[in-house]
Amino acid sequence: MAELPDMRFLTVAEVAELMRVSKMTVYRLVHAGELPAVRFGRSYRVPESAVAEAVQRPVSDVG
């Protein structure tokens, strides 16, 4: 049997809490392709490593 990598997945609520944004913002990031996610049934799970990368990514100024 193939070994699965030791990955942790977070719920949208957990990601929102870590990033200090709303759940809707997390959904927008997922749908825009800026935050990778896997869909399990009706819910999304985001790899913990993707959240760490997104938090460390520099933010550009708008306007």
TrEMBL record:
InterPro entries per record: DNA-bd_dom_put_sf, HTH_17, SinI_DNA-bd
Pfam families: HTH_17
Record-annotated Helix-turn-helix domain positions: 9-56
MF (Gene Ontology): DNA binding
Superkingdom of this protein's organism: Bacteria
NCBIfam families to which the protein is assigned, alphabetical: excise
Protein name in UniProt: Excisionase
